[in-house]
Amino acid sequence: MKRYFLTVVFIAAAVTAHGGLETAGGGYAPAGEAASFFSDARTQNRVDSLLALMTLDEKIGQMVLYTSHFTVTGPTLAKNVEQAIRNGTCGNIFNAHVPEYNRNLQRIAVEETRMGIPLLFGYDVVHGMETIFPINLGMSCSWDMEGIANSARVAAREAIASGVNWTFSPMVDITRDPRWGRVSEGSGEDPYLGSLIAAAMVRGYQGDDLSADSTILACVKHFAAYGAAQAGRDYHTVDISERTLREVYLPPYKAAVDAGVGTVMTSFNDIDGVPATASDFLFEQVLRREWGFNGFVVTDYTALSELIPHGVAADSLHAAELAVYAGINMDMEGDIYHKHLRTLVDHGRITHQQIDRLCGEVLKIKFGMGLFDDPFRYLDTEAHKAEFYKPANIAAARDMARKSFVLLENGKGTLPLEDGKKIALIGPFADSRRDMLGSWSGQGKADKVTSILDGFRRRFGSGNVVYAAGCPPSGDDRSGFAEAVAAAQEADVAVITVGLPGQWSGEATSLTSITIPRIQQELVRAVRETGKEVVLLIVTGRPLDLSWEAENSDAMMVVWYPGTEAGAAVADVVSGDFAPVGKLTMTFPRSLGQLPIHYDMKNTGRPYTPGQGEQHYVSRYFDTPTNRPLYPFGYGLSYTTFGYSDMEVLTPSVGMGTPVRVAATVTNTGDRPGEETVQLYVRDDVASVTRPVRMLKGFAKQMLAPGQSARVEFIIAPGDLEFYRRDMSWGNEPGGFTVWIGGDSDAELSGKFEIR
After folding, report:
1. How far is 644 from 667, CA to CA, in rounded Å?
2. Catalytic residue list contains 454
């Protein structure tokens, strides 16, 4: 059983095991020492010796990142970029992922330049390279840290086989607004869980030895608070307090730094009036001085030139100057550093020492990766034949996909489907392959995807599956309705795939509606009128308002964009060969008007209290039954049921700095085996500043047979209760606390403890 920041006690075994994360509490602390592969004295001596031999232009070249492009004939590079590599004035390339092509560019860099400094080859390997895993939001719903880390390990090996040695991942932006399309790339709304996932992915990519042949350089992004863009509109302003920034948005980045991440990417947004790419507060004060980060910082795509429309830089020369003072090491594609850094040095606006420092941090990473010892270590032109889509990779993708699915409704026990039933498989995504990959899907190929239709035919038999698309994802074409209705009439049960196309999620895909397109709802209504049981499979990259769907289906499961093994994984779960275990990591609202909504909001002076009758002058919506979401954070059903009882606070009163122990019994109250994610939530009842109504502080994954019980014990460490106090100092305060244990953030089983 996996455990995070907790202790778990089995009744049957009567043993106690204590587990934790190497960075326990560090995800929240304002200071700390970051793990690093690059800080040894020998590496620094090599960097200093190399810098002493380099010209200013060669140093600037290490701070330049240009893109490669692709045509129908393959990868191509602009002539001026290839010449820049030869001149030593371009030290890094991204979007190049063909080993032969990259090997030639590396040969130019190390054999045809004066200094022979190897190139970095970067690429957005976000949830897989060739074998595509579920989107990151989906994977987060597994609450499976080892599975998530393994997805990064698989992606790293396939990226290496593609000639890539640097991934622009993990994306760890906390987000509470599903209108923002990039929620699909992150891990949801909670900083505690998001921090664990950030660290897991860094460990998956980088391992414990970045010079090993199976690891690649990771890049945590987007620093910082990109997920808090106003109105859910991509690239928009972020306007939050420093307290909120530090307590909610910074912890996952800090966890990645503590796990040893080698690079950090700037975000597009501004914070407190300063665009991130010009923020010395973010990169010099927080990242380097407070957190001890000693890798390098790269801009997002053309973020340097965007300082001009932001209104903080008069021109590109000024933008380059601001970025240097902010501590930005590398300019992605903007061509700003290449054009202007020498001029800034010549005119005394920046110094040689500043260039040496920023260039040296890039070189230190290249030394730490072993590129100077073997520049071609990631460029085996035959590796892809053995690595891409190998059985272990496919098996891992399938396992993560089925663990990511979240069963939302199953009141009639419609799922799992019994063998021998005739199934009408309907909807615009039933035979779609491209949509299953989602956004930022690396080099995943649609023709390698197992569609849901493929999976159903293999699992249930072609003769038991009747297929009809019914309608396109959007628009007004209802010509397929009749075929869909006929298929349902012929079958015992209708399984309908509905949701949003894959290209509707990701960067620059902000939406003002989070409902399923009307034509798909009309299709569901038409099939529903046949009287057959209806199962909805929700294909999406973001939380949706599923209020109508919940009322018009017998079972409903969100399958996200499941990746290469989509169909096989869906068939596994729908058939009952694998019981659903997913738990939501973003709240699903009842309506657009509730946004932003998240489980760990703060009370007001007039809070709404469920179950206390009519309440008028309280903080609620007048036009909805309650101010509660449709599906809360942490929610997810199984094919069995679980009950919680006998909660006990084992240490009801402790001194400052002493751990708190709480326990409860979880029982499988159904007739099937199942795995439950037992969750622990805490509230600081009275503090010097307002605190969230609940905060996730631990969880345990517990497999139980029908009728079996287990006693689950959690240890709440002192660091788990620290926060930024009124004077912005970090630490604990004495007082009373409420603690809950249950299956989601609405857990009712509670207790109290006191810190003296």
Report:
1. 6
2. no
